[in-house]
């Protein structure tokens, strides 16, 4: 009898929790996530519209006679395309990809996936040997962005194979999937850059939401469970979960709409290396899918860059001062990166460690190069370096069907 009397109270608590969850979801806008981030500069944002056009060019049948070229064209020289393969050439292993050498800007650009590294690493090595001063840049969009972010990690682990230093490798992930643990997302923020347009759904889609999307027949039950889980799970516990994935690297957020306003505003680009608040909330917006389209991202990023350049022209900044600003920007990014690593340690993120107090990232390179190294980091709670194979063996196991799955319990 007493249990039955308590049911109305439980129902009220549950309804209040659901109301709070729906209220937060309905009033949450993407602009809140990056409102405290710094503004991006034209120098650091300049490659992004260009790389969007490179990704679009991959899908053209004839790059010399394009059918879907954006305004102003793709801006690439067809004679500088070293390699280009479609679905038939790669046996359906990956989406179409190409290797493009931009001699004007000194870049070797690979728009591809992990399978390509094993298939084309010899081509890359020869190009790097031929152009040793060029930057090796990986670019991708959507799921391909998540894949090139992982491919960048593989390239960093195989720098001897390519003959490159860490500062000669860059990755630009356009609208990426959540593909890295929080520790890796922060650790590789000096190399990997993620670009997100306003309300884009994919960088915010967790594995739990993927379950909801796949289970159309029991949405109410799953939404109720998600509501209870979100309400009762502490943020600190989410951050310490090694199975939870995040958007990789340094984040660039293009904001073009404001809450309770109609129409689009001049886009503003904000950037940071956050530890908490890495697009953790789904935004209930009618633009959640359209903001994921590469065409929209290219258009808005180009408009944002034009506004930055116009502002610089009005300010009439001398060339020497621009060079000073670039050096200052690199120093600020380095400090922000170090601060993010230290905050990850302070929040007790699994596998996180602090950078050296001498202003170098030498210990990061050592850990990547030696999977069996027994060296210690300069942390107060020192941890042994761990290789990729050991990490995979600790986090995954092989089931009866031969597939790799997450271990049910992690040490």
UniProtKB/TrEMBL annotation:
Q: Which domain of life is it from?
A: Eukaryota
Q: Which InterPro entries match?
A: AB_hydrolase_fold, Fungal_lipase-type, Mono/diacylglycerol_lipase_N
Residue ranges of the Fungal lipase-type domain? 108-207
According to the entry, every stretch annotated as the Mono-/di-acylglycerol lipase N-terminal domain falls at 10-74
Q: Quick one: a GO biological-process term for this protein?
A: lipid catabolic process
Q: Where is the signal peptide?
A: 1-15
Q: What is the lineage of its organism?
A: Eukaryota, Viridiplantae, Streptophyta, Embryophyta, Tracheophyta
Q: Which UniProt keyword terms apply here?
A: Hydrolase, Signal
What is the protein named? Calmodulin-binding heat-shock protein
A Pfam family that this protein carries is Lipase3_N
Q: Which GO terms describe its molecular function?
A: hydrolase activity
Q: Which organism is it from?
A: Vicia faba (Broad bean)
């Amino acid at each position: 009898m007493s249990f039955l009397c308590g049911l109305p109270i439980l129902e009220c608590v549950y309804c209040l929790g659901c109301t709070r969850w729906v209220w937060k979801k309905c009033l949450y806008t993407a602009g809140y996530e990056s409102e405290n981030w710094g503004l991006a500069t034209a120098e650091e944002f300049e490659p992004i519209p260009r790389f969007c056009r490179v990704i679009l060019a991959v899908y053209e049948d004839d790059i010399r006679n394009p059918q879907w070229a954006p305004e102003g064209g793709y801006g690439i020289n067809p004679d500088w395309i070293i390699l280009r393969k479609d679905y038939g050439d790669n046996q359906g292993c990956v989406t179409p990809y190409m290797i493009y050498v931009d001699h004007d800007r000194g870049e070797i650009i690979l728009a591809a996936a992990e399978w390509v590294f094993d298939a084309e690493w010899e081509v890359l090595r020869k190009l790097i040997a031929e152009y040793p001063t060029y930057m090796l840049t990986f670019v991708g969009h959507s799921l391909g962005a998540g894949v090139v972010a992982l491919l960048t990690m593989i390239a960093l682990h195989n720098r001897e194979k390519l003959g490159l230093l860490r500062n000669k490798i860059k990755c630009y992930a356009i609208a990426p999937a959540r593909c890295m643990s929080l520790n890796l997302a922060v650790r590789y923020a000096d190399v990997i850059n993620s670009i997100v347009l306003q309300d884009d759904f994919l960088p915010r889609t967790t594995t739990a939401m993927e379950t909801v999307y796949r289970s159309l027949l029991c949405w109410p039950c799953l939404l109720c469970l998600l509501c209870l889980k979100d309400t009762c799970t502490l943020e600190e516990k989410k951050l310490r979960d090694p199975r939870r994935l995040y958007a990789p690297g340094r984040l660039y957020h293009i904001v073009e709409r404001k809450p309770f306003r109609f129409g689009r505003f001049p886009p503003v680009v904000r950037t940071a290396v956050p530890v908490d608040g890495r697009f953790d909330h789904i935004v209930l917006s009618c633009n959640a899918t359209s903001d994921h389209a590469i065409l929209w991202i290219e258009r808005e990023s180009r408009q944002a860059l034009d506004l930055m350049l116009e502002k610089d022209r009005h300010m009439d900044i001398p060339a020497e001062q621009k060079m000073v600003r670039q050096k200052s920007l690199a120093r600020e990014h380095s400090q922000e990166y170090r601060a993010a690593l230290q905050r990850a340690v302070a929040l007790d993120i699994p596998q996180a460690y602090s950078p050296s107090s001498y202003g170098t990232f030498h210990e990061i390179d050592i850990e990547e190069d030696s999977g069996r190294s027994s060296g210690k980091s300069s942390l107060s709670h020192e941890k042994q370096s761990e290789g990729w194979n050991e990490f995979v063996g600790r986090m995954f196991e092989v089931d009866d069907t031969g597939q790799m799955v997450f271990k049910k319990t992690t040490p």
